[in-house]
Amino acid sequence: MTAALQVQHVSKGFAGVPVLRDLTFSVVPGNVVVLAGENGAGKSTLFNLIVGRFAPEEGTITIRGTHLSNPSPRHARELGVALVPQELAPYEDLTVAENIAVGQEPQVGGVLKRREMHRHARELLAEFDVDIDPSRRMRTLSVALTQIVEIVKATSSGAKVLLLDEPTSSIPEAEVERLYAVIRRLRDRGVAMIYTTHRMQEIEAIADRVVVLRDGVLVLDEQAKGLAPSRIVSAMIGRELGTLFPERVEPSDEVVLDVQGLHRKSGAPEVSLQVRAGEIVGLGGLVGAGRSATLAAIFGARRASAGTIRVGDTTLERPRVQDSIAARLAFVPEDRKRDGLVLGRSILDNMTLPHLSDYARLGVLRSGRRRAAAKEGADGMALRYNTLQQLAATLSGGNQQKIVIARWLDRSPAVLLLDEPTRGVDVGARSEIYRIITDLARQGMAVLLSSSDMPELIGLSNRVLVMREEAIQGELTRAQLDAPDAQAQIFHLASGEGTELLATEGTKETR
Amino acid sequence: MRIANPVADLRDRYRGKSFGEVAVQLAVRNAMVLILLVVIAYFAYRSARFATPENLLVILIAAAPFALIALGQTLVILTGGIDLSVGSIIAVSSMSAAWVAVRNPDQLWLAPVAAIAVGLICGAINGLLVSVANVPPFVATLAMLTAGSGLAYAIGNGAPINGLPSGYGAFANTEVFGITIPVLLMIVGFIVFWFVLQHTTYGLRVYAVGGNSSAASLAGVPTRRMLASVYIISGALAGVSGLMISSRVISGAPTLGQGYELDAIAAVVIGGASLFGGRGTVWGTLLGLLLIQTLNNGLQILVIPAYWQAVIKGALIAAAVGIDVWASRRASR
Fold first, then answer.
1. How far off is chain B from A445, nearest CA to CA, in Å?
2. How confident is the model over B303-322, as pLDDT tens digits?
């Protein structure tokens, strides 16, 4: 049988940093390949190569026997490649039928044939046993149904190679089964699929084969049947954690951040926690467990309805951002482009924005001081830049993240709140960011860090609090984190359900 | 404060390039200046009356009331908003000033106080609607445009207010250092706004709120207060502008200022500001203002019928911005 997709000896790098190295694998029609790997392992780069957005530096990509010689998204699409991205972007205010039709509208001389369009949509949805009224507005659908409509749309144009980027990351457990049903049906129709996920039980449920990438190298390619989850995990993490994570610091006894009875909104449980000087406390949990919301509420980015936050000697009731900054709290948001940086302004401006009045007299900026502070911050972070006037938009993700962290440091905050500090950051910059975080703890800062990246959570934290349904479900001490089943324990607390499989396998393997 | 050295900057930027290359690059970077010069040259060639000191003064006097509202508009547009109400605020504040002046002919200082206070209040209502009630700026200021215009008529029971004491004309017609007060205010206004936007905490925060309000807010910038402030400033400047206009004609009329908001917005946008916020300069607004005012004046001098003036003006504005956008794309390549 001709492979639906063949990737042969493909390498790709950015600005001299290799992201994928000599990658070879193939997918046959009707096969579901789960592509696993940590953040930054090269999964999205691989997807971008297959959909023709990037060209490989070396190697070839062949789709259904045709070599993708001159890669362009259009060419790949014509060959039958479709991608359902992690961040869905449907036309929220159009109907389901309209969403499916956009780009291939049934028409007569530019006049839309609405009835035809609806019939077609209904047929397509029926093929997948999905019961959605085609005239519903996209906005009214759940994430899972939106996901399914996007998949239907992608395959309606005859896709033979379907790439699904973390399709379940934002779908509640109960709805995942509906997605599986759609995927199985596509499999029966001979569609080849590559599917990325961080959830172990999905591999069990859906995968025919498992491919694991680590730092751009293919480290595992096996049939899913009979493959132990622990092997997948160790293939993903693989490397010595010690090389990536600096030595942890012994925290002092002094409590610097004391959050008591933080109540975000009516109906939500209260959250209380403490962080000591020099301590890094990790916040674990699945997407939507309330980690980001808790950090935002502590900082005052989203105002809590009740709660006391003590920072050193200052006690704040339901603080606003300005109060928190004055009390020497610092916050690095999850989405640096949306909430962190003013991309159209310079490094200088972004670096000094939180403490502008420190560099001003009577509201007039003193540019000498401002430059000195920005330069010091940039150099302390090993920021790679040409001039301070350079726009933030021109920097790489890792360097942007360094600015968002560095800009708090020149007033040496007492508490650093970090939300997914290495999301979308390459491995090199990631280890630098880890070094910086640990250095800050060594200087006596209290760090509260939320992360979906298990190795990061385990590698950096002195202890980990796990959240589910907006409440803290449990705590893992350093000793528990060092135990081989730490990941399984965290997962167990986070999902609230049995992960016996992973737990038992994990312990067996490592013992 | 580090004073920038423009000559040194230029020398660095163009080091090792031929004179021709430098000239082309400078032209591309300053396309709007060139367009303005071409327009001036054309009018000067067509009419001997255009390029005279007297006519320059005429242009400046006509430009002054627009200048103040265009500066306010620059702030508002930098935050990603728009202020459609400035024309109406001019009408209300001029009627209020005239109303006060007629009743207190011996205390004329009350007139400017009334005009500015009315402008401030209207601006504050806009500001509260936008920042606290989260009404989209377009809608909030459109409502103020409508209500303000009606209010202006209501103050005079539908009629203009005439018979003002002759001292009322002093606000617009007194000369200081050989130039009238409105022109002086315009010049001072441009300098102050340039300084505020380039060199103050407030200015940088305006850019930050417009560039990414979520990020600004998480960096501790009081975004709501910033938003409210730009509408208040815009309203107050419209109030001053209203006083100047009504003082020049020594009467209050509910039709004063009608449609001025469009010229003010046009000036800012011609100057390269983005309606999405975060991008724009006072220098750009000055160029936009001068282009519009030069066109008004020059077309008038050439005795072109008013309706054709409007057509030509519209076409030239579109062409000017088109060339400028094309040139800045080229420059950033």
1. 19
2. 999 899 889 988 988 888 88
**A198 close to A286: Cβ distance less than 8 angstroms:** no
Cα separation, B125 vs B83, whole angstroms: 12
B194: containing domain? 36-332
CATH code for the domain of B172: 1.10.3470
Do B185 and B176 meet the contact criterion of CB atoms below 8 Å apart? no
**Domains by residue range for chain A, with CATH:** 5-238 (3.40.50.300), 249-328+413-511 (3.40.50.300), 338-411 (no CATH)
Total domains in the fold of chain B:
1
A16: left (phi over 0), alpha (psi -120 to 50) or beta: left
Give the residue ranges of chain A where pLDDT is below 70. 1, 15-16, 39-40, 169-170, 172-174, 198, 238-243, 426-428, 497-511
Substitution target in A332, A342, A404, A418 with the highest count of B β-carbons within 10 Å is A342
Sequence length of chain A is 511
Please report where in the chains the tokens 């994430």 appear, as a residue: A143
Task: Please give the share of chain A, as a percent, with pLDDT higher than 70.
Answer: 93
Spatial CA neighbour of B187 closest among B283, B295, B64, B57: B64
For residue A477 the two structure tokens come to 């001490």
Q: Is the dihedral of CA B278, B281, B284, B288 positive or negative?
A: positive
Q: What pLDDT score was predicted for residue B194?
A: 96
- Whether B23 is covered by a domain: the verdict is no
Whole-number Å distance between alpha carbons of A248 and A259: 24
Specify the residue for token string 């949509």: A121
Give the pLDDT confidence score for residue B323 in this predicted structure. Answer: 83
Three-class secondary structure of residue A257 per DSSP:
strand
User: What's the rounded Cα separation, in Å, for the pair B178 and B185?
Assistant: 13
Please judge whether B201 and A349 are an interchain contact, meaning their C-beta atoms are less than 8 angstroms apart: no
